[in-house]
Each structure stands twice: as C-alpha cells, then as structure tokens.
Design brief:
The complex is a heterodimer of chains A (about 290) and B (about 270).
Chain A: H1 2-45, H2 47-52, E1 56-57, E2 64-65, H3 68-99, H4 102-117, H5 120-139, H6 147-171, H7 175-183, H8 188-199, H9 201-217, H10 220-225, H11 242-249, H12 255-288
Antiparallel strand pairs in A: 1-2
Chain B: H1 2-24, E1 29-34, H2 39-52, E2 57-62, H3 65-73, E3 79-82, H4 88-92, E4 95-109, E5 117-118, H5 120-127, E6 145-149, H6 154-162, E7 173-175, H7 178-187, E8 191-196, E9 205-206, E10 208-209, H8 216-220, E11 227-235, H9 242-251, H10 257-262, E12 266-267
Parallel strand pairs in B: 1-2, 1-3, 5-10, 6-7, 6-8
Antiparallel strand pairs in B: 3-11, 4-8, 4-9, 4-11, 4-12
The chains are: A mainly alpha (about 290), B alpha/beta (about 270).
Chain lengths: ~290, ~270
C-alpha cells in the first residue's frame, strides 16, 4: 500500500518536472535558434556596420543593412514612454496605495486591470484613428504617424504594469514605519514621500524596469502609429522600431535580408535579456531590503 | 415516375462524367513558382481547378517574379509567374510569356484633396521628393505626405518600376497592407498613396493619371499606364505535361475570367 502511494507520488513528481521543463525547453530552443540564425548575417554584414550603419535598404539594388536607426528608435521610444508613463503610474500607485478611499480604490484597480487586458492591436487601432490625426492637427505637422505617437501609445500601455507592481510594493511597507513617522509629527504627505516611497523604492524600480520591458518588446501597436520608415529617430518623424523592422519585412524576406531580420531579433533579444537581468537584480534587492 | 427516373439517369450520368474526369487526371501535378503579387489570382484559379479536377495537385511557390522566371528556365516548375513582362534577354533564353491578367495600381488621395489628376512625371517627382507641396501640382498649400508599402511588397515593386522610382521614393510611412494604406490616406487630407485598383474603397479618391481614370476598361486597353501584367512564363518549344497544359488552357480560357476579376485583376482574355 505504502509502496503504491510512493510510486504514485513519484509519478506525479515526474509529470510536474516535465511540465516545468517545457517552458525552460521553449526558452532554450528559441535562444539557440535565434543565435544560430542570427549570427551568419551579422558575420556577413560585419558587426560594426550592422549595429552602427545608419541606412537600412534591404531590398535596394545595393542593399544596406544598418540597424542603428532601429536601435535608437527603440531606445528613444522606450525612454519617452518611461518619461511620460512613470510619473503618472507612480503617482497613481501612491494614490491607490495610501490615499484612495476603499470604494474608489476598487473601481480604479479594476480599471487598471482592464487596461492591462486590452490587446495591443486595439491600442494601435485607436492610436491610428484618433491619436495620429490628433497629433497632425495639434502640432501642425504634415503627418501624425511619428515617434511621438508611438511614445504616447507605449506610455499608456506600460501604465498597468507600473501601477500594479508599485501598489504592491507600497502596500508591503510595514504600517509601523508610517505610524512612527506620523507620531513624530510628519504630515501624511511627508510620510508618504519620505517614508513609504523610500522603503518601497526597489519594488518601484522593478515596476519601471517591467515597463521598459513591455515597451521595448511591443510591436503591433507601434507598427500602426509610427509610420515604419527607416529614418533616424526624431520626434515628429516616421520611425521604425526593432520589433516592427522584423514584423514588417518578415513575410516577404528572402536570403540575406531574412537572415538580417533574425539578427535584428537577436539584438532585441539581448536587450530584453539585459532588462530581465536588471529586473531580477531589483527584485532581489527588494526582497532583501 | 418517369420524370424521377430520367432525373436519376441524368444524375448518374453526370456523376459518371465527373468521375471520368477524375480518372483521366489521376495523379496529375501542376507546379507554379513566382510572383507574390499574383498570390490571390493564382490561388483562386488553382483552387477552382482542383475542385473541378479531383486528384490533381496544384502547387504555388511564392518566391517573387525573378526567381519564378529562373525556376522555369531551370525546369523546376511547370509554369512561372511574373508580375512584369519578360525582358528581351529573358526571351532570348527561350522563354515565352502569356499574359494572364492586368493589375492596375490606383493613385489615391483623401476626398478632401482638390487635386484630381496628375501626370506620370508629376507622380514620379512627388515620390522622389522633387515636388513636396501640393501647391506645385494645383492643390492646397500643404506638404505632400507620401504613403507607401513596405520593401518587398509586389504593389510597391510594380509602382516603383512603372514610375521609374525604384529605391528613390522618400516615403513618410511604409505600411504593411493595402488596407492600412487606404485607411491612412483617407485620414490625412495631404496624403497620397497607391493601392491595387480592386481594393480601393469610397473612403479615398482615385486620381486620374494623364487624364485617364483608372478602371477595368482603361487598364485592359492599356490607356491607364500604372498597370502591370500578370504573366505566365513557359519554355518555348518544350511541351507542358498533360495536366499542366490543361491548367494553362483552363486559366487562360474565358471561363476563368470571372475568377480572375473576383480576385481583383483584369483578365486578359
């Protein structure tokens, strides 16, 4: 009887192990595949020319494969989204965690969850039909599809992750800290910004990094609002991100062009790994702190 | 009673005939290779051919016009597909072109734009950035916003080769589908774009080119110049396989014209 139970236990353990390994295998498979298919083109084009070339003309008679415009666009776009999204998200989180009455908090939190659940193509569609013409009229530029449109869409898209993680971090601050601060005569606002926020800073940093990760990996929504011309980034210019560079040419690409797209994906992958490593670093610190 | 019997007989005969068709074609294969722009047309034709001839396998390899022509030369496929006419040197290598259909590329602007006609030279000058203001072509004082397709698109390839602007277009936006181009152009009164004639909707205005309005008729008689042929490429002097010949005859017959126009092109026959 006991042996039977043991065997069953072992079998269940085995099943769990296999299921657990599935995701690990997927990651390994993708990593290996990306590296294998991404390296040859970089080798052929030359690493410096690939990373720092400023012209991308993959189908021209004399093709040029420089992805600096894409890298800079992705960096600027993400940075812009952070500059707009983090203050809004952070303040919203402070309000939700420390100030809001319970009823308001419930409503707002479900709204934030809903925002997180909206598919990116919907963000793109609304951006394309409302934001792009809006920018065109507001700034009197010939065309609204630009880096700015992408930044605004990304800023809205990263709000939920920033708010949610920051709220969790702020709520985890022990009540005693705040009580002590209030007892010493600090006002609630002072308590909030001098005690709670510093205590939760690792968690908030993790929220920001998470937002960066979401922004840099987004393809669909930015493809619909950014115009996709391979220009060097400028606020009102049509730009192409690392993600959209892959997505917009994949279906037609052949030969070296196709391999170069894999190389772009590899660069993007490295960026995201870097961001994940940063995230882990902050999360670890927030646990220890 | 008699009626029912005769109906039954006719039914049985019809089935027998269809079955007969199937038998004569059992195991037949037609392979096509080439232009990605022809995907819709050749796909629809292939499907209906397979539906009418059971057991026939139709394959289409979307590799682009250039490699389709090469594939015929090297005997890797029965029929090559090209969305441009053959060059003289290609004909010299023993290739024969049969025009299957014509595809018009419409130049579109927003309905709010007062411009309604441009010459081919003006279009080329606009797309290469020589003309940047609508004023220069009789419109409002506003910058022209160039909307195009992504590199590799068949429509872009067709447009750029006809207007002689290959690799020279200063696109403001490179969109990945015909629908995106139409939506974007309809939203911006200063935008100009190009799209396959069959896909153009009422939300945008089609420009006439050199005073010729794009339509099925003007594409067919050749007076609308921004058009390209869909060409079937075969080897001159080499007979096609029985099935391939049957497919060739089928798609160039009048019966196939409806399928071709349903797929958005203008049938040549």
């Amino acid at each position: 009887m006991k042996d039977k139970k043991k065997a069953f236990e072992r079998a269940v353990h085995g099943v769990f192990l296999i299921l657990g390994l599935t995701s690990v295998c997927c990651v390994l498979l993708i990593t290996v595949y990306l590296i294998i298919s991404g390296i040859p083109a970089i080798h052929e084009i030359g690493l410096i020319e690939f990373l720092f070339g400023t012209t991308w003309a993959s189908t021209a008679a004399e093709p040029a494969y420089g992805i600096l415009p894409f890298i800079l666009t992705s960096v600027y776009g993400t940075a812009g989204a952070i500059v707009i999204g983090v203050p809004i998200g952070f303040m919203a989180a402070v309000y939700l965690a420390k100030v809001a009455p319970p009823k308001v908090k419930t409503v707002m939190e479900s709204a934030v969850s809903l925002l997180a659940g909206i598919p990116s193509v919907v963000y793109g569609l609304v951006g394309m039909l409302v934001l792009v013409p809006g920018i065109r009229k507001m700034f009197h530029v010939p065309d609204g599809a630009s880096l700015l449109a992408a930044i605004i869409v990304l800023a809205v898209m990263i709000l939920p992750s920033i708010i949610k993680v920051s709220v969790t971090a702020l709520e985890a601050v022990p009540k005693e800290y705040e009580d002590a601060s209030l007892a010493l005569g600090a006002t609630p606002v002072e308590t909030c910004f001098r005690v709670s926020v510093p205590a939760a800073k690792s968690g908030i940093a993790a929220a920001v990094v998470l937002g960066v990760g979401r922004a840099i990996g987004e393809a669909m929504a930015v493809m619909m609002v950014s115009g996709n011309a391979a220009n060097m980034p400028s606020l009102f210019q049509s730009v192409r991100f690392l993600t959209t560079a892959v997505a917009s040419e994949m279906s037609y690409a052949a030969g070296l062009q196709r391999e170069a797209l894999f190389s772009i994906a590899l660069v993007l992958f490295l960026f995201i790994m870097l961001i994940n490593a940063t995230l882990n670093f902050f999360l670890k610190r927030s646990k220890e702190g | 009673m008699k009626k029912i019997i005769s109906l039954l007989v006719v039914g049985v005969m019809a089935v027998a005939m269809l079955a007969g068709c199937g038998v004569t074609n059992s195991g037949g294969r037609v392979s096509t290779d080439g232009s990605t722009s022809m995907e819709k047309v050749i796909g629809a034709l292939g499907e209906s051919f397979m539906a009418e001839n059971k057991n026939v396998t139709f394959t289409y390899n979307p590799t682009g016009s250039g490699s389709g022509i090469k594939a015929v030369l090297e005997g890797r496929c029965d029929i090559g597909l090209s969305s441009r006419s053959l060059k003289d040197e290609e004909k010299a290598q023993g290739l024969k072109e049969t025009i299957l259909a014509y595809d018009g590329i419409a130049i579109i602007v927003s309905p709010a734009n007062p411009v309604s006609d441009l010459s081919l030279e003006q279009i080329a000058a606009i797309y290469t950035g020589e003309i940047t203001n609508w004023q220069d072509v009789g419109g409002n004082d506003a910058s022209i916003v160039l909307i195009g397709r992504e590199a590799g698109s068949g429509t872009r390839d067709g447009f750029e080769s006809i207007t002689d602007t290959v690799d020279a277009c200063q696109y403001r936006q490179e969109l990945t589908s015909t629908g995106d181009v139409i939506t974007t152009v309809s939203q911006n009164p200063d935008a100009i774009g190009y799209a396959s004639l069959a896909s153009v909707k009422d939300s945008v205005k089609m420009l006439s080119v050199g005073d010729v309005t794009p339509s099925e008729g003007t594409v067919k008689d050749g007076s609308y110049v921004i058009q390209r042929p869909f060409v079937l490429v075969t080897k001159d002097g080499t007979a096609l396989s029985e099935t391939a010949q049957k497919f060739f005859d089928y798609i160039t017959s009048e019966a196939a014209a409806d399928i071709i126009s349903a797929a958005g092109a203008v049938a040549a026959n």
